[in-house]
Amino acid sequence: MESAPKQNRGCAVTMIAGLAVVVLALLAGGVWTVVVLSGAGGDYEHAPTCAVARGEALNRLVPDRTTEVDQEIKNLEGTGREGNECRWATAEDGGHVPAAARLVLVSNAGDVELDAEEQATAALKEAAAEYGASKLADLGDGAYSWSDRAGGYEWGCVGVRVSNVYAETCYTAATDFNVGESIDEAEAVAGAEELARDVVQGIKDSKDEE
Question: Distance (Å, rounded) from C-alpha 105 to C-alpha 109?
Answer without folding.
Answer: 13
